[in-house]
Amino acid sequence: MIYTCHLATSQRDSALSKALAQLPADLAVRIVYTDATTNNLIHCTPYPGTGVCLIPAADVASKPADDESFVSLYCALMDKTNAIVLVETREGKLWAEFTRFQAVGGLEFGLKVVPVDSTEHGARMIARMIHQETRPSKPTALVGAASGKTENQNTLQIKSVCGIPGIGEQKARDLLNEFSTLRGLGDASEAAIAERVKGMGRVQAKKVVAFFENEKSLHFLA
């Protein structure tokens, strides 16, 4: 099976192109450059319904989330059955900017907007998506069969919770296992989080609550 990312020709020497080229063997993808795609938009095969765009930190920091160049990306993704907007946050340093992308891309255009720490992190997520989309989806222990969530959807939920300052992947799993869904976690009190999740102190619990107090973020993540 050949896993392919179609990138705009202008991306040939970009950080994303280099990061994709340096992926480990188990996540390797072939890069095809084309003039028939919008800059920053990645078309993926053999699963054509997947569309991804990675917005680099430099653009996140310098342009508003409703900039015309971003709106063209959102529009291009809307006809995809599985569309993801990855926003580079420089390990959380651009979190305020990320929430604005959530509000525009998520609320106004109905897209999944997910934080990534770096371009390399984004490249790994893109590769995992392409590889996973060719396999049958199956429920995982994180949500359970009753929820109907697929493994790929769970991965996106975990990555969203990992965007909370101080929350790593294992802690994100613990939180979602305890409260079942992002909505359940968002409705939880500081005391409930600290008491019900092993190893969660009041300081970390307060950060989780603060994250979900942003009504727009909660609406998007539900």
Overall description:
Helices cover 48% and strands 15% of the residues. Helix 6 (151-162) crosses helix 7. It is built from 11 helices and 6 strands. It has 222 residues and is α/β, with parallel strands linked by helices. A 6-stranded mixed beta sheet has the order 2-1-3-4-5-6, sandwiched between helices. Strand 3 and strand 4 form a beta hairpin. The relative contact order is 0.11. It starts with a strand and ends with a helix. It folds into 2 domains: 1-135, Rossmann fold (3-Layer(aba) Sandwich), CATH 3.40.50; 138-222, 5' to 3' exonuclease, C-terminal subdomain (DNA polymerase, domain 1), CATH 1.10.150.20. One of its GO terms (cellular component) is Fanconi anaemia nuclear complex. Residues 159-178, 192-211 form the Helix-hairpin-helix DNA-binding motif class domain. Pfam families: HHH_2.
Write the layout of secondary structure elements.
Blueprint: E1 4-8, H1 15-21, E2 30-34, E3 41-45, E4 50-55, H2 57-62, H3 68-77, E5 82-88, H4 95-108, E6 112-116, H5 119-133, H6 151-162, H7 169-179, H8 182-187, H9 190-196, H10 202-212, H11 215-221
Parallel strand pairs: 1-2, 4-5, 5-6
Antiparallel strand pairs: 1-3, 3-4
Helix pairs in contact: 1-5, 4-11, 6-7, 9-10
Give the key terms:
single chain, about 220 residues, alpha/beta, Rossmann fold, DNA polymerase, domain 1, 2 domains, disordered C terminus, DNA damage, Helix-hairpin-helix DNA-binding motif class 1 domain-containing protein, chromatin binding
